[in-house]
Amino acid sequence: MDIKVVSGEVTKIETGAVVLGMFEGEKRLSKGLGALNRKLGRVITNSIERGEIKGKAGEVNIYHSLGRIPSQWVAVVGLGKKEEFKLDIIRGAVADSCRTLRQKKVSDITVLSDSIADGRKFSREDYAQAITEGAILGLYTFRKYYTKENDFTEVKKLTLVSTKQDGVAAIKKGSSKGRIIAEGVCLARDMVNEPANYMTPSAMAEVANKIAKDNDLEIKVLEREDMQKLKMGALLGVSLGTTQPPKMIVLTYKGRKSNDIDLALVGKGITFDTGGISLKTASGMEEMKADMSGGAAVLAAVSSIAQLKLKINVTSVVPAVENMPDGSAIRPSDILTALTGKTIEIISTDAEGRLVLADALGYINLSNPKAVVDVATLTGACVVALGKQCTGLLGNDQPLVDNVIASGNEAGEAIWQLPLFDDYRENIKSDVADIKNAGSKGGGTITAALFLSEFVGNTPWAHMDIAGTNFTDKDKKYNVKGGTGVPVRTLVNLAIKMSGKGK
Fold first, then answer.
1. Closest CA to 15 of 63, 61, 70
2. Which of 41, 162, 404, 422 has its Cβ near the most Cβ atoms within 10 Å?
3. Which fold has domain 183-498?
4. 248 burial class (0-12, 13-18, 19+ CB within 10 angstroms)?
5. 8 A C-beta contact, residue 14 and residue 180
6. Taking a C-beta distance cutoff of 8 angstroms, is the pair 336, 234 a contact?
7. pLDDT at 115
8. Which residues of the chain form CATH 3.40.220.10?
9. pLDDT reading at 317 higher than 70
10. What is the CATH number of domain 2-161?
């Protein structure tokens, strides 16, 4: 999509549709909306008087211009109450309006930035970033495998308009940043939406190699033989049931002159999860292609971080493997030895994510990173606890945990901290090994995080359980059906804060 920023009068712009915002209960129209209202014969104020437009968040009203202005359509989007206004409302409003206009066969959309910014508590740059993110994310589609032409309109152009020339530079800067971050999210979504017969561990490594080539990054892909030399018995154990070779992908961005790793991002890369010998039920198993969402997120985040040229060193690590149930697969009661030397009793082969993460965390910890954040679709218990709207977060370092939560709040990605109480560690004590990979049913998200904590030592660490937030079955605001790309924007915001560019 071509994105431009211009200054001018919204009533004179030639475009398929123009989008303007309005607050709930607002008695006086903004300058741009007022000008349009006059050109359109007071259709907007008449609609307000009839109660058709209320300005509530998520409300979209579409009007045909009837040739009175160069734009064919006008969309008035609700921004909710001023006192409750936040940037995420912009993302949602722009996403909803863009999708609605696409249904009207509009391929060229213009957003009047001033009607949304309008001198409120955020900067022009912030507004422009949110508008751009909302448009790109809301219009995302995954159409790669359609073989027949159908009645679909692609939005090819987005224009952000400022009524003031002095606002253009800030809007351009914010829009550019929003585009980089949103395209990172779309990259993660593409990876998650790919079928598992295409998005194999080897294919994930190919994506990482392309990211490295496009952004001049360092990359290392550990093969089975490399993992055997490092004695990664936990990851290799999971790989025994599949013909797909495992990969350990290590992608590094250096934004400052140092070999230190300021932030390590570790993402679970199970490209398909049958549950192994502890086989999952058939219902919903097709969504297990998304069990590599954590891996996709950390690779995409590094891509965006590199394009933003942040002054921070970030390394992402993705243990990529399938979990399949053939005659060579690990069984409940087997014992595996991780890279750290810790022995693990297998209680459930469907608790495989923590096994591959154990070796990934152990591996990156050898490099003494200053902070580690791992991302994984780890437990159904997290979905039970928090539903599908909120990511679970646990960690051993409260400042890091607080930073992740703040980064998520800015992105509109809801995160809730769960306790990492040591008492729960009893649930993963084994009678025959150092630790077991699954405990009792209660507190499953906590015990899974405690299992991971065994492999990070004293390194500041936070664990994000995205089992509920990585995938959605319906379009809502800027998330569309399929992979969501959560938590790419949170991770990028975290890197921005840690690089000293945060607010």
1. 70
2. 404
3. Aminopeptidase (3.40.630)
4. buried
5. no
6. yes
7. 66
8. 2-161
9. yes
10. 3.40.220.10
Tokens of 296: 């996709």
pLDDT-derived band at 473 (thresholds 50, 70, 90) equals very high
Interior angle at CA 340, CA 211 and CA 270, nearest 5:
40
Residue-by-residue DSSP string for 437-462: S---STTHHHHHHHHHHTTTTTS-EE
pLDDT-wise least confident of 25-39, 68-82, 423-437: 25-39
Task: Give me the mean pLDDT over the 133-138 stretch.
Answer: 98
Q: State the Cα–Cα distance between residues 332 and 344, nearest whole angstrom.
A: 11
* 408-413-419-424 Cα dihedral, nearest 10 degrees: -130
Q: What's the rounded Cα separation, in Å, for the pair 417 and 392? A: 6
Which residue's structure tokens are 């219009």? 139
Bond into 487 cis (ω within 30): yes
Q: How far is CA 166 from the centre of its chain?
A: 33
Residues of the chain with CATH 3.40.630.10: 183-498
Q: Which two tokens stand for residue 52?
A: 């058709």
* Strands in 133-281 per DSSP E: 157-162, 218-222, 247-254, 263-267, 269-273
Q: Are 457 and 342 in contact, with CB atoms under 8 Å apart?
A: no
121: Cβ contacts below 8 Å, ≥ 6 apart? 85
Catalytic residues: 280, 354
Q: What is the biggest distance separating any 2 CA atoms in the chain, rounded to whole angstroms?
A: 80
E strand or H helix that includes residue 217: none
And the tokens for 289? 């292609």
| Burial (0-12, 13-18, 19+ Cβ within 10 Å), 333 | exposed
The pair phi, psi for residue 422, each rounded to 5°, is -65, -25
Return the residue matching tokens 């921005």.
Answer: 496
Torsion sign (Cα): 53, 57, 63, 68: positive
* Confidence label for 150 from pLDDT (cuts 50, 70 and 90): confident
The tens digit of pLDDT for each residue in 397-425 reads: 999 999 999 999 999 999 999 999 999 99
Residue whose structure tokens are 């359109």: 40
Beta strands in 255-390 (DSSP E): 263-267, 269-273, 313-323, 335-337, 343-345, 372-376
- Model pLDDT, residue 167: 85
Q: What is the amino acid identity at position 123?
A: S
